[in-house]
């Protein structure tokens, strides 16, 4: 560092200003005189606010609302069109993301006593971070909350074609007539859903495996695939891109077509798809490659592994939360980890012990909830049946179609399915999966049951309100009597 280097000291230095970093900083200093700073090279509010959860659900909402109305006689007759109005959907999306203006997020941080520094943070030594010519010292902790970036597979011509990633799909401005989606996970399935809602004529999904959403129970992918196919998606299982050729390429910015038509050759068959755009939804990698981790003897790339206090072993001052640690790539779980990390930092700063469960992120291991906002919705928590068996659990299951009075009242033709995975030895639920409209609001009750290790005998007394979709809990429990 040169002689003109400006040095600042804070109790807590957070690299990454998404919701995960914000939570870590807030919990570490709230109600104290400790100081914190967030270093962010893009937008405060992070991926979730501008490029992921918020805009994606915003894009999916109008189509879901129309589908719900279409299911009910009386509402259906008042519908003037089967699909949402694209310009209004995109305008609402821009309202949700604040047109990628993070002023309000910065104002929140500063109102919470957290300073914000614009720039790329890099670790340069123990408790030391650089941002340009500034050097920042952390008295208590450095927290890495840098998130992840979209992965582009090493396919000939793919990177050169400047394909869309999730950031483009959620911030789309130009609506392509023909698009190929590489991948069969959450981003691919949700994007295919809203692209069909927006009137894309040809949506082709190229999936290396043989089912969608493969980390879930098998019926999940089957039901989502069936629904997407019925709406016009062409799903190609068991194949991948062999090569991509795009003669005219243009870096036109998020959500604009990145050039002229592209030719995508599929492996095996050699079939060539001509499309207006390519969406790569083939996974994400921790954003740790330019973080200076080598300066402390850590790997320069890949996940920054932690213990359940979110501390990087061997570096008691260093924490990693969210996608950067490779544990669970979900915003709500990253925020959970950040709350744990913030509480641990505060407890250690005040000389308190870490015996309480609140200082340990144990939910990461067996109680992770997730909702996929496809149609039908997918809501899951904990272990699948196969995962439970692989863990050596003595498993029994409750498995049935989701058909109760509450579902009929939502849609006379309602289609859904539910499954509980039970540890027979302990008589507790270790996993739950619900597929169907309105199931997103079921998953938290299942999460409470899994985390609380509530026995089935006790769950019998959690009486579901009638007539709601949650009555499926009663039917599942009855099947186990």
Q: Can you identify the CATH superfamily of the largest domain?
A: FAD/NAD(P)-binding domain
Give the mean pLDDT.
96
Our count of helices gives 15
Main sheet summary: 8 strands, mixed
CATH topology of the largest domain: FAD/NAD(P)-binding domain
Overall body shape? globular
Over all CA atoms, what is the radius of gyration? Answer: 24 Å
- Alpha carbon gap, first and last residue: 70 Å
What's the CATH class label of the largest domain? Alpha Beta
Strand fraction: 15-25%
Q: Mind telling me which CATH architecture of the largest domain this is?
A: 3-Layer(bba) Sandwich
How many strand units? 22
The total number of structural domains is 3
Q: Into which percent range does the helicity of residues fall?
A: 25-40%
Structural class, from helix and strand content? alpha/beta
Low-confidence stretches: none
Write structural notes for this entry:
- This protein folds into three domains: about 5-45 and about 100-150 and about 285-365, FAD/NAD(P)-binding domain (3-Layer(bba) Sandwich); about 160-280, 3-Layer(bba) Sandwich (FAD/NAD(P)-binding domain); about 375-480, Enolase-like, domain 1 (2-Layer Sandwich).
- The strands form five sheets. Strands 1, 2, 3, 4, 5, 6, 16 and 17 form an eight-stranded mixed β-sheet that branches. The protein has a five-stranded antiparallel β-sheet with strand order 18-19-22-21-20, sandwiched between helices.
- It has helices spanning about 20-30, 45-50, 55-70, 85-95, 105-110, 165-170, 185-195, 220-230, 330-350, 365, 385-390, 405-410, 445-450, 455-460, 470-480; strands at about 5-15, 35-40, 115-120, 120-125, 130, 135-145, 150, 180, 200-205, 235, 240-245, 260-265, 270-275, 275-280, 285, 310, 315-320, 370, 380, 395-400, 415-425, 430-435.
- Helix 1 (about 20-30) runs parallel beside helix 9, helix 3 (about 55-70) packs antiparallel against helix 4 (about 85-95) and helix 3 packs across helix 7.
- It has 15 helices and 22 strands.
- The relative contact order is 0.12.
- It starts with 5 loop residues before the first strand and ends with a helix.
- It has about 475 residues and is an alpha/beta fold.
- The mean pLDDT is about 95.
- Its cofactor is FAD.
- This is NAD(P)/FAD-dependent oxidoreductase.
- Belongs to the class-I pyridine nucleotide-disulfide oxidoreductase family.
């Amino acid at each position: 560092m040169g002689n003109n280097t400006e040095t600042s000291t804070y109790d807590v230095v957070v690299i990454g200003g998404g919701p995960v970093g914000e939570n870590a900083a807030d919990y570490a200093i709230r109600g104290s005189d400790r100081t914190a700073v967030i270093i962010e090279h893009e937008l405060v509010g992070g991926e979730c606010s501008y490029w992921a959860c918020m805009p994606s659900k915003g894009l999916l909402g109008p189509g879901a609302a129309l589908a719900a109305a279409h299911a009910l006689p009386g509402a259906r007759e008042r519908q003037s069109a089967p699909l949402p109005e694209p310009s209004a959907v995109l305008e609402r999306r821009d309202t949700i993301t604040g047109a990628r203006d993070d002023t309000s997020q910065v104002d929140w941080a500063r109102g919470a006593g957290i300073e914000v520094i614009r720039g790329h943070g890099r670790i340069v030594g123990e408790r030391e971070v650089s941002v340009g010519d500034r050097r920042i010292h952390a008295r208590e902790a450095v927290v890495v909350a840098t998130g992840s970036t979209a992965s582009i597979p090493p396919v000939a011509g793919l990177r050169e074609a400047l394909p869309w990633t999730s950031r483009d799909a959620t911030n789309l401005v130009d609506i392509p007539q023909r698009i190929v989606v590489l991948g069969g996970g959450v981003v691919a399935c949700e994007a295919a859903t809203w692209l069909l809602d927006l009137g894309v004529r040809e949506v082709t999904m190229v999936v290396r495996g043989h089912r969608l959403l493969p980390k879930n129970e098998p019926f999940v992918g089957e039901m989502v695939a069936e629904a997407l196919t019925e709406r016009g998606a062409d799903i190609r299982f068991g194949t991948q891109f062999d090569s991509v050729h795009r003669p005219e390429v243009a870096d036109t910015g998020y959500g604009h077509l990145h050039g002229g038509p592209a030719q995508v050759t599929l492996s095996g068959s050699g079939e060539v798809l001509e499309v207006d755009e390519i969406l790569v939804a083939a996974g994400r990698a921790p954003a740790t490659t330019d973080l200076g981790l080598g300066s402390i003897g850590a790997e320069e790339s890949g996940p920054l592994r932690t213990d359940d206090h979110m501390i990087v072993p061997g570096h008691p001052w260093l924490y990693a939360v969210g996608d950067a640690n490779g544990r669970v790539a979900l915003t709500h779980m990253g925020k959970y980890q950040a709350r744990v990390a913030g509480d641990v930092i505060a407890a250690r700063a005040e000389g308190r012990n870490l015996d309480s469960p609140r200082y340990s992120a144990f939910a990461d291991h067996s109680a992770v909830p997730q909702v996929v906002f496809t149609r039908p919705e997918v809501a899951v928590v904990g272990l699948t049946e196969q995962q439970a068996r692989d863990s050596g659990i003595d498993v029994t299951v409750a498995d049935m179609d989701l058909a109760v009075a509450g579902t009929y009242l939502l849609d006379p033709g309602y289609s859904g399915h539910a499954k509980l995975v039970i540890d027979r030895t302990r008589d507790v639920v270790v996993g739950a999966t619900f597929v169907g409209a309105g199931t997103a609001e079921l998953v938290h009750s299942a999460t409470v049951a899994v985390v609380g290790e509530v026995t089935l005998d006790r769950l019998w007394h959690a009486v579901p309100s009638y007539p709601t979709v949650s009555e499926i809990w009663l039917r599942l429990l009855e099947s186990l009597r």
